[in-house]
Every structure is written in structure tokens, then in C-alpha cells.
Design a protein that fits this description.
The structure is a homotetramer.
Chain A (H helix, E strand, L loop, with lengths): L1 E6 L4 H10 L5 E6 L5 E2 L13 E2 L10 E4 L3 H13 L3 E4 L9 H8 L6 H6 L1 E2 L2 H10 L2 E3 L3 H15 L8 E7 L14 H4 L4 E2 L7 H13 L5 E7 L5 E8 L7 H11 L6 E4 L26 E8 L4 E9 L2 H15 L17
Parallel strand pairs in A: 1-2, 1-5, 5-6, 6-8, 7-8, 9-11, 13-14
Antiparallel strand pairs in A: 3-4, 9-12, 10-11, 12-15, 14-15
Chain lengths: ~350, ~350, ~350, ~350
């Protein structure tokens, strides 16, 4: 059994890691920490009655793998500490996601205190970096919006099919993506029947998208990203618009995606047919409710041949495939387990 | 492997049975039917990409166990057919839930065409009828409100602690409890920011509650039940008020519940302390979000010693412990498996 | 024009007072205060572009009428100050709602520093205290749950029709009722798909209900009240159960309510017929969406003749008829205006 | 008093027209029709107790102005009939919105039976066509997404500031925008915690946007529009991306919008400052909750100078400024009344 530790387990990422690891056949929770030690159920009522208690971070020792759900500075320090003690580390935060130091320091408005680690870390999108993850000691788990957009655009960039300077992404996020910390835009009377655009330009995840898509394109990709909080809980929908360089049909693009993700068990290309006579067309596009609670990403596609536009719709769970579950997927890969172990259950629909 | 068939699999109960059985280590889906055969994913988008297709009900043959999610008349007929073919049958509907024919026919406003089966059927609350379920061929799966209220009141009636003629229950239900059929009170613009009381007197589940609680009390119990749809999806909260016959404290009642459910793995008595200095007291009471997607029922308790009232708060998932999952629990029991097999995963919090 | 001041205008009560007074033909906003002076739109985005600024409480002087939306101690002090300066005062808080000092001090866990004011204050349910309100200097605006329950039970107690010791009320409240202050049970990821019972016994509004209903009954009434937060925004539904002392039909009770509220323009008795053949009966009961944003209370009724129970369903908007709008209604009455002035617009359905 | 008739008053558009006209100082409801005559409150519970009854369409005669909320074919026929009887007509549907017959017939997949009317009709965006509306007999009320996008992009196109061939608009719509007709994507268990993209390419409103923006630009504009249903009720947010042809700052664009809408009382340019130190920037952007129930459109702006993108965020109420209320605004203009009459109340925040 893999012994897993979780640092900062009182937030939603930590809670999801606990929930999934509890059910994992080859891993067990060695310990979990919180700045306020005590029953895990105080933070995660779904874990009531299991006798699971949080310990103080200072008491956390050992673990074959350690998941970090911490603010940036603490992440960097903890990563170093656990790596030196021989653990593998999966950082659910943003300390190691960017490969360019200048970019990272500009985006996060601080100096990075241990850039060697950032250089070592592997960006944890398994669909793109499988072999590197297999060999890694330190994983930088991707941002939720980033995962959805990268998976939703990767085949187009790889194929050099679209104008790489005009990739437009609107990210619709459930409020769990904003975390367990109380905040006015997540206060129910404010958001319950509302839509809250934020960081309309310059959202940090933009840089992750540009990094990975540039890598695939072999040239500098530019992503125009705007996020909006919507009154759902876990779901994320990235609506990705791109402009094809040559004529292409919906079937062409679906085929391209099917090929690209042929060996990716957690990405499902949603290739339902459009029904010509139907004036309200919604069946060919994936729903976030379909992947709630899971590590799946469903991707739908459409093409406006007349106007020259490709739309890809990428849905995932912000704390599942967009968060702690992809961390567990990376753990599986790092430890040579079946990549789908403990992660294959289907989504809670309806929810 | 137990071969399971599902009749009427296109609704939410059928979808939940499929979702849970897909992940069950000792059962497999032999077939599932719908009046509109075709891909299961057309109805249950979470099942996309599994290649699972619904067959026509006429083509359904065999199965060690058959789950029925059908209108009443069709349930009766199907139950007879599958039992005669040697299957065990778990009816998720209401055809066999009442033991008194006159009551059943009055409540359902029709004649029952096969009362022998109703006589044979075991009411599937495992916490009360474990041995009978073990021996049964035919299970009448309880109603969602009924399960919550019966579990929330059983120990009080068994102990003769409360006035059995003035049991007041308000049932708050998510809209999945109303089913997949379109209806105005479940139309999002109507219910999304609304509360819809319905069948304010005489709801059918009342009779199930009275039947089971009378049995426990050894005398006629009277339940005053009113349901309300609320804009959540799966959760049910039954707020159960009763008037104690003798002075009793919160601790007394918690103790009584703990004892009663000592051997019931799916009922968790929520016995968190009340904090005296806190003016906004919500932590001692269970949340429906904590049990979303599960077969658990969490029960909280409070006592107004000054006014003479016991409140029990019983939460479950209307299609989980209030529906298809308790059906799978009953299947486990009927086939001699571990009762918790495939059902032990914790709730999707937050959701 | 009546000059109105609002103290503590940054919360939901203050915002609603502003919204309604802006549209009132005979009143105008003289000033509004906040501990953080500045644009009102920082707190109430609906007021963007009006140039309305909050002043510091110390700068608030004058006003024919002053609305207080403050914590208890501050309310008491401010009420005294503004009354002495010659203003009429409408307290939207709870400082003056109870007429019995011992009860008040027990419930609010503090000593009351100015009980003379509490003695003078009129409890602002206009349907019960119209003449006293007309003559008052100081109004204690009722609690939101209290208003709904009192209006939903008053005719029954007045008529001595029901057992006054077993009045059971479940209060379902939208999250705006909890106020603008951030809190975990109002954090969207927690409540968006959840139900949060709280203060399951002993909620403060219980005492208001008992006070007013006892007055009507001419004997001590006992209310068994439990509140639950639900994921709606403004609506409140009080489900009121009572046990009739003599046989009574739905029509009898509807008639009783119609008579009682014959001169009450803001209470609408919802007397739609029940349709015998319908198995899903929801049309005869009022919806909170129907009264969103208004000063109306709709009351529905049903009677279980077989079991001996009356159910009254009372819906209102927690910051409208349950809050600031009833304050404006009381202002109208105190100043001899048409009681409905500025308050007659119908609810925002759907919302 | 202007006598107003409403044809097809049982839907959300009709209900909103009724709600607003009830409160209009210079108009009164002469009659309202439905295919199922009877109490208006059967469809619009907020109108309970007013004694307002729907008549059969065949019985509708007269009216200074007639609002049509009908399917296309019926709209065309009714418009002709009421115009010939001397009424002014405001069509809330889509029969007369496009000025190019070929485009209309391609988009609506039918032949238009009375194109003379379409030629005569004025497209009812008052901010662009004020004089024509003043003189019109027949108004084609704009689509909800169209209004938001046109208002959010008009100044940019008028100024020739952006690439008119790459206007990208994501439209997030509440479910009331889908109408009162029951449909699976609006069934609460499906949409309550979900996001439903639909008509991802080729949505009909695209053509309205292109028509009006081309007119402003003086050349063919191309709009890349994708709509998504979100679990809110009335709000619409159009996120509009455009690529500037020359360097431009946020202040420049805000200034441009302020000038363009200087005389437009219902458009509020949301020009709050960005706070440099804040990493979670949401205050500078408008919320749909701020304009719920109103005829206002709030527009926010941001500019990514580094990447070359302008984002405009346009929010309105799909049945208010995006529907029946703009119809009443047009009525005011057509009859020489103050344009804001009956429409100036501020939004129901929180809601």
C-alpha cells in the first residue's frame, strides 16, 4: 500500500483527495494536516464517523507520496522538505506550474525562493506528459481552467490547424473552484442567481495555457481568456474558440480529437451527431453534470464552416480532473499502477 | 457474478442503479430496458462512452435479480413474470409497499391486480427487516420520504417515548425526487429560486411511515406529513417533530439512537456537541450535501426540554439511500454478500 | 416629502429600504450611513450610477423618520438619540420586539440598557396593531420568520380553533435572511445544493411568535419552531401545523382567513380549489417566487380531516414583507399616507 | 391612458408585460389573451388576487398598442390584423427582426408570408433607432442575446476600432430565456447544477447582431456567437471579445462607451476603477443580479493591452431589457411619453 500524506487538507482540494484516497485499492491515508487540527469531519461533513483527524503540519512525517494544498510560499518550502525526506510530491497549488521564471514571478507578483524545484517539476497533464510524470519526483498539478482549455485545444495546436494568436477561451466555473475561504462573490445571496466575471484579463491560468499550447504548436500561442463564476458547485466549462487556417468540417475535427486522445482513458471525445431538423441543438455537447465527482474530461466540438470558426467545449470537475483527482491519477502513474485505479467511477448525474 | 437486469432504466432510479452496479465487484448489468431502446447515454450523459444500450422491455430475459423502475400496473405484471422465471425482484416503485390492501387501493386509487405478491413482498428498510430481506424473493423498496422519516422516528416509537398520534414531519426534497418526467414545478425558471409545497395532506408516503412506525410502536401511529420541493437536486431532509411522554434530554435521545443503529452501517447518528456560546448553531445537524450520491442516512437530534419537543433531522439522497442504492443494499443482503459491497464510498461534498 | 434616514445601510435590509424609498412618491432619502462611508453601489450594485453615497453614522442628523439596521446595542442607543431629536424611529432589528424584559434578556443573553423604549415600542405587524402603529414614535419591526408564522396562525388562535400548546412551525428561509455578513452556511459551495437546519430549538423568533399568538389567544401559546436555510435567496415559507379542537374543513379555514384579513391589503389568502382527480397537488399552495421583492404575504391552507390537522403555508420575502418593506408600510401608516404607497408592485416571477 | 393589449400572455414575456404595465402611470391593460382562457394567476402566480383573466385570442379587439408574444407564423398574421385595425404593434418575437428576406428565410427555415411588414418594421433597440421608433407603427423587439451583444459592441464598431470579422461573443443565459414551455435542458434536476451549451454555431440571434453591427460599421461584421444556459433565472451576460486595430487602453474604451451612451438612460457604463493590488478582481465588472427585473443594461469593459484584446461585458434581464420591458420602453417612445416612464425602478438585488 502506498502511504499518502496530505498537507492542508481542510480545503476542497484536500477534502477531495481524502474522499478519493479512502476508496483507493492500493493507497492509504497516512496522515492529513490542517492549521486547526481536529476531526476532518469539521471541514468535510461527508467524512463524518470515520474517526479521521487532522494533525498539525509540524507533526507530518513520512509518506510515500505527499499532496500539497497550500499557499505558494508554503508549498515551495514543504515540497523541498518532503522531497528531501524521500517522498514523491504532488503540488496541487501553483508554485511550480510555469517553466519560465520571469513569467512566474511577474504573474505571482513575488520572487520564487526555490527555482530549481520549478525546473524539476513536471506539469501534470498526463495526456501530454505521461513519460515525464512516470519518472518524476515532483508534479505541478495543473490549474482547473488550464486543464480544460489545454485538453480542449491541444489537438488543434499540435496539428497547426488554427491561428495560434487568436485563441479565445471563456471559462465558466462553479464556486468550489474559488475554494473554501469565504468571499463575497461566493456568498450565496450574491451568486445564487448571478454571474460574476473576474480577472477578465490576465488570469493566472492564461499563462499555463499559453505555455503548454506553445509547446505543442512549436511557436508562441496567445490565449485570450476570461473566467466567470456561475452558480454551480464543481463544474467547469471552457468554451474555446479558434479560427482554422484551412477549411475543416465538424467530422474532421472530431476525428482529429479521437485520434489525439485514443490512449487517454479520462478524455472522452463527445462525438454525438447533430440532428439537422432540430432547431434547439444541445445533445451534441457535453454537460458538466455528467462528469461531477470524477476524473473525466468530456470534449465536444462544432465548426462554423461559413464563418470560419472551431468551437471546442471542454468540461471537467474543478476539484476532480481539474484538481485532486488528477493528482491521484498522477500518483498512479508515478507508482506504476493502473492509471485508472480508484478513479473509474462515473459521474453523479443528476446532481 | 450476479447478473442484474433493470426494467425502466431511463429514469433517475434506473440511472442510479446502473451507475452503482457498474462499480459493484460482485454484480454485473445483464441488460437494461427502456420504452425507447438505444444508447443509455441519451438519458444518462454520465454513462457516455461505455457502449451501454437499452433493449426493449419485451427482449428482457433472465437475470439473477431484476430491478423494476416502472409505473404501478407495469410493476405488478413484471414482478410476477420475473419471479416465475426464477429471478429475485426488487421493485423500486410503490406497488408492494403497503401490507393492507384496502389502504393501498384507497391511496393509489386503483384495484391491485396481484395482492398475493404484495403479501409476499418485504418492505425494504434493512434496518428494520434484515432477516426478512435475507429470505425474500420480492422486495418493496421504500419511498424516499418514508425511509428518512421511518429511520428518524423508529427508535422513539420502539421505545414508546413519544406521543404516537402527533408525529409531525416536514419533508424537504430535491427535484430529482420528482423524477425525470418534465413538470412545471420542476421547470428551472419556476423552482430555481422557489419552494413548492405539494400534497400538503395525504401524501402517499404517509401511509408507509404509519405502517412501519405502528409496527414498531405496537399501536396505531399517526403521521402528519407535508412535503416541499426545494431547489436542490438529490437531497432529502425530513424534519421530524415529536412530543415526549416523559422528560428527556438531547443526550438521552442520542444515546437511544446510537444503540438502535449500532449494527446499521448506513445510518450514522450525528452526535456532535452543541456549543453553548454559539448563537448560530448549525454544526450539530447533518447536511444533505454530506450524503449526496450515497447510501448513507445521517440523523441529527435536538430536544426542547422547556417546551417538550424532540426534533430529529434525517437526511439521505432520494435516489441513493432513498432509492436505487438501498435496492442494491437489499440485493447484497438477499445474495449473502457483504451488505456494504459497492456502497461504501463517501458523499460528494461539496456538490 | 418625508425625509428618511437609514442607519446601517450597507446590509440587505438597508439596501432594500433604499431600493423601495427611491421609488416612493412621498418619501425621499435624506441620508444613509455605513461604517465604511462611500458609494452605496459598492454594497448594492443595483444602485450603480445614482450618485448615492453613505455617510459616517456620526454625521447623520435629522430626518422625519429613521430606519435602523444595526446590532442590538447600537440600535438601542441610536433609537434614543433619534427619538430625542424628534424623528420617528423604525427599528429593523430585534432590540424592541419583546414586551417581557426577562424573556428578552434571556433570549438575547444580555441586559437591555433602555427598557423604557422597549415598553414604548409597537410591534410592527400592521395586520394586528394598526391603530398602535398609527400613534407610535417607535416601531419594532418583526422578524421574518415571525411575521410569516404569526400571519399564518393568527386567525386560528383568535378563534380558539386549535390546540395552542402544539403549534409546530418549520421555517424555510432563503440565504438573504442570514444577512450580508459572510458565513460558512451561506458560502455557495456549501449551501448551493444543500439544506442547513440551524437553531433547531430555541430560535429567537420563537418568542415573538409566542408573544403575539398568546395575545390573540388570550392564553399562553407554545410554538415549536425549527428553521432551515435553503438555496433560494429572499423567500421564506413557514409551514405551520396545528391540531384543531373541533372538526373543520378546508373551506371553513379559508373562510376564517378571508374574514380575518378582509381589510389587510398585503395579505392574500390563497384560496384556489383542489382538483380531486389530480395526484400531484401543488396549485392550491402559494409560492415564494410569487412574492419576491414585495410586501405581500400569501397564505395557503389545507386540512387533514381524517387525522385532525390544519396546515397553513405562509410565504413572504425575508427582506420585503419580512423586513425593510414592512418598515416602509409602517412609515406610511405612521405618517397618515396610503398604507400601500410605493409598495403595491407585484412580485418578480419568475426570478 | 394608453390601452394595451397582449396576445399570448401566458408565457414569461407576456407575464412580464403584464407586471410592468400594471404599474405604468399612463397605460392600462385592455385585454390579454391565451389559448387557454382563464385566470392570469394560473400562469403568473405573482398576479394572484387581481381578478385579471385571459380571453381567447379571437375575442381580442382594439387597443392603442398590441404586444405580440407568439410563434412566428401567428405573429405575422396578428401584426397585420391589428395594424389594419389601427393599433400600433410591438412584436416580442422574431418575425420582423431581419431586414434581409433571404437571410430571414434561411435562418427560420420557412417562407415569410408578409415581407412588406418586415420591411416596415423598426428594429427596437432604442439606443440605435430612436427616431425611427418614434415614427413607427410596427416594432420588431430585439432578441435578448442580440440586445446585450449589440449594446456591448456598438461603440467599437461605430468607431472602427476593432477587427469586425472576429467578434467573439459567449452568451450566458438564465433559463427564463428559454421560455415557459417545459424542456429537458430546463428541467431542474438537469440544469440546477449544470451548464448547457446549445446551438453552439448558427444561433439565430447571431444574424441580428451581424445586421446591426454591420450597419454601424458600414461594412460586413462577423459575429462568432455561442450561447450557454446557466442555472440562473432571468440574467444574461454577453462576454464580448474583440481585437483592436490600434493600441487602446481601458480608459479609452470606457470613455468611448460613456460618450456613445450619454443620452441613453437605460445603459449604464460600469466604469469602476481596477485596484492594482487586488489579485481577485471582480468589482469593476457588472453583475446580472444588479439589473434583475429591470430595463437596464450595464456594460463593463477591460482591455488586455499586452495581447491586444478588448472585453466588454454586457448584462441585462432576458425578459426585461432583453424582452417585454424594452417593448414598454418602445411603447413610451412611440406614444411620446417619457421614455423611462414605469421603467425606472432599480434591480432586485440580492435576488
Amino acid at each position: 500500500m502506498i502511504k499518502a500524506g496530505i498537507v492542508g487538507a481542510s480545503g476542497y482540494m484536500g477534502g477531495e483527495a481524502l474522499r478519493v484516497l479512502l476508496d483507493h485499492p492500493e493507497a492509504e491515508i497516512a496522515w492529513a494536516t490542517s492549521r486547526t487540527p481536529g476531526p476532518a469531519a469539521d471541514h468535510h461533513p461527508n467524512l463524518y464517523g470515520l474517526g479521521l483527524d487532522f494533525i498539525h503540519p509540524d507533526d507530518a512525517v513520512g509518506g510515500d507520496v505527499v499532496f500539497l494544498a497550500l499557499p505558494t510560499a508554503a508549498s515551495i518550502e514543504s515540497a523541498r522538505r518532503f522531497l528531501e525526506a524521500g517522498s514523491k510530491v504532488i503540488d496541487l497549488g501553483s508554485a511550480f506550474r510555469l517553466s519560465d521564471r520571469e513569467t512566474w514571478e511577474a504573474v505571482y507578483k513575488q520572487q520564487h525562493s526555490d527555482w530549481d524545484l520549478a525546473t524539476e517539476a513536471v506539469y501534470g497533464v498526463s495526456e501530454l506528459h505521461l513519460d515525464e510524470i512516470r519518472a518524476a519526483r515532483l508534479i505541478a498539478n495543473p490549474g482547473c481552467f488550464s486543464s480544460a482549455a489545454i485538453l480542449g485545444l491541444a489537438p488543434l495546436l499540435k496539428e497547426d490547424l488554427v491561428d495560434e494568436r487568436h485563441l479565445v477561451v471563456d471559462g465558466l466555473s462553479g464556486t468550489a473552484g474559488a475554494g473554501a475561504e469565504l468571499a463575497k462573490p461566493a456568498h450565496h445571496p450574491e451568486i445564487g442567481n448571478n454571474l460574476v466575471a473576474y480577472n477578465v484579463i490576465g488570469h493566472r491560468h492564461t499563462l499555463e495555457m499559453e505555455q503548454e499550447l506553445s509547446l505543442l504548436a512549436g511557436k508562441k500561442a496567445r490565449v485570450h481568456f476570461t473566467p466567470v463564476y456561475v452558480p454551480v458547485t464543481r463544474g467547469i466549462l471552457d468554451v474555446c474558440h479558434s479560427f482554422p487556417k484551412r477549411p475543416v468540417s465538424r467530422d474532421d475535427v472530431l476525428g482529429l480529437f479521437r485520434d489525439f486522445y485514443a490512449d487517454s482513458p479520462f478524455v472522452k471525445v463527445y462525438d454525438l451527431p447533430k440532428e439537422e431538423a432540430v432547431s434547439w441543438q444541445y445533445k451534441p455537447y457535453p454537460w458538466v453534470s455528467a462528469i461531477a465527482g470524477t476524473n473525466y474530461c468530456f470534449i465536444g466540438v462544432d465548426v462554423d464552416e461559413a464563418r470560419g470558426r472551431i468551437v471546442t467545449l471542454s468540461v471537467l470537475d474543478s476539484v476532480g480532473k481539474g484538481g485532486a483527482q488528477v493528482g491521484v491519477e498522477n500518483m498512479n502513474i508515478m507508482f506504476g499502477l493502473d492509471r485508472q485505479m480508484g478513479l473509474s467511477r462515473r459521474g453523479l448525474h443528476p446532481n
